[in-house]
Design goal:
heterodimer, A: Rossmann fold, Rossmann fold, 7-stranded mixed sheet, 5-stranded mixed sheet, B: Rossmann fold, 5-stranded parallel sheet, two-stranded antiparallel ribbon, 16 helices, 7 strands, disordered N terminus, disordered C terminus
Chain lengths: ~350, ~400
Amino acid sequence: MTATAAEAGRKPASMAQALNRALRDAMADDPTVHVMGEDVAELGGVFRITDGLAKEFGEERCGDTPLAEAGILGTAVGMAMYGLRPVVEMQFDAFAYPGFEQLISHVARMRNRTRGAMPLPLTIRVPYGGGIGGVEHHSDSSEAYYLATPGLQVVTPATVADAYGLLRAAIASDDPVVFLEPKRLYWSRADWSPDAPEPVAELGRAEIRRPGRSATLITYGPSLPVCLEAAEAATAEGWDLEVLDLRSLVPFDDETVCASVRRTGRAVVVHESSGFGGPGGEIAARVTERCFHHLEAPVLRVAGFDIPYPPPMLERHHLPGVDRILDTVSRLQWESDWTEGSGD
Amino acid sequence: MTVLEQRGSRRSGSYWPAPPPAWRPRVDPAPLLPDAEPYRLLGTDAAGRIDAALLSDLYEQLVRGRRYNAQATALTRQGRLAVYPSSTGQEACQVAAARVLKEQDWLFPSYRDTLAAVARGLDPVQALTLLRGDWHTGYDPHEHRIAPLCTPLATQLPHAVGLAHAARLKGDDVVALALVGDGGTSEGDFHEALNFAAVWQAPVVFLVQNNGFAISVPLAKQSAAPSLAHKAVGYGMPGRLVDGNDAPALHEVLGEAVERARRGGGPTLVEALTYRIEAHTNADDATRYRTEAEVEEWREHDPIALVERELTERGLLTDDFVQRTRDGAEELAAALRDHMNQDPALEPMDLFAHVYAEQTAQLREQAAQLRAELEAEASDAEGATEGDIAGGSARGAAGEERP
């Protein structure tokens, strides 16, 4: 622990603890907040994110449901219709799929369908992503499905502080939020005080996690620590990489992203989700449309391969790693850059 | 030996280890079973106990409902409705479902249930907004306690369960009644909704209108269950089988189910046996999958005719009453026709107004694009009109042809 952190009364806390605290504070602040899902009550969820909530607030506020994701989401829609603010836990990314019809046909559309008369303040927490040695169906990066559905907000924290601030913001939002929790970062720790938590964040704002001048790594969720590591390693190559954490895929913060790319002139999007039809394609298109005259090279992507998620003993070949990111950065047409040497 | 006894003897035997609590029989299935024959009142000895005022009121509602269905179908032929899934022949289900609910209760209709919404007091024009196509939902669901008309089959059932559950958590006296068809009972959401409802003991009633067909697919290809009402038993809730064209019988069965839910007795599944006299929608051709003889048989078992017979026997079907009822129905149809013959006011910018509470930057950009396109269209049209006045350019003449 650093001296500064000790002075501020901070001690290392995990992302899981911050998420748990966010749920607890939201439930304490607002009696309409109800947590529901599989194993969320006595067990505290398979990742223990809801640990202690049933004990503190009763099973009426944090309750186990039957094992049926469409039923969980569908009943949560009805509860939200009646003025509650349900927070639903989907046990794993790939186990959320049975709920897709409810999500796409109802959760995302109810406000629009009723001309604003029936908004759905509903948070859907989904542990997502790989890198935990999970067997099949436990490691999907399912964000592309969600962000292709108008009416949903899609948010994903990458830091302990954001886990708290963004989850509070998601629960406070009057519109549905798919809250993607990078399960590989659940046990990542940072100096963060549960006694003086961060204020509720604003949805739809990206953050620059590492300022740099050579190129922008645009990323989110589980790939943020990888990008930060890559940026440190890149200094040896003479590249000063900016690392941008999107935090929210919908709404998308064009402003912060484009301001960064206009400064650096180069961009690489990094995510675990498959490249074809993945978020990186949309982001690259947006950046190209808006920053074309500032770009020194095409926007490149480092994404998961276009394959079903691999078995755990092979997943390291699939996930974007430091080397693949640096290889990609090296292809950003540095040789043809007339400013090379003058700028950096 | 019943299943329960069998289980008991097994438990006491040495073969089975001490069972965990979940092994115990939780519910005796016998009281949950539906009657072997659909419950009826009209044409039976029990018909005499139907309240005369209720009978007359149901008659009026049925006649209005039939006229409403006819008018809505006519509006599709005139291009005033994009599509209309008729509930002709199913009016007893529609009317009874609406009538058993109190003001604070909620109705969860499917796309074929606009009549139930109208019978609950919704303006027919608002009820038909979805099918006219000027917006998806034409009313404020909270104002009428009618959920939006639901098109994806059975997906409104878990909503009804969740709403009823939430009301119960809040201590409110609210029952939800959800409508679904025979085809909808094959959907996963039907299963999940009934399971959640029973586990939560939610104050909700499911009414299956078994009209024999899911578009063209007959029930025999849909389910091998003894009856759809029997499905209730597997969830631990009572199933009731009722003649879906016998409005007083439906009123009684649904009324009992609603009151049971209100008292904290939990959910009920009601299967109403009825028949879809019209095709699936105006776009369907029912002659491809059923015979006219079959339809004729069901016309003989018409919900209005059944009530008429009872009213006649009691001397209540006076010429004056029949005339008043017809006049009321004609008034409803005329008002609907008049409203629907006016073009709805369309506001294209509304496309962006209700996606989120606050428009995203991207939606603001897209709204600006559409606004510019609309302005360009308007100024083109203006230019065309000026051309006309100036002496009838080709472009002006083309503009003039537009309605």
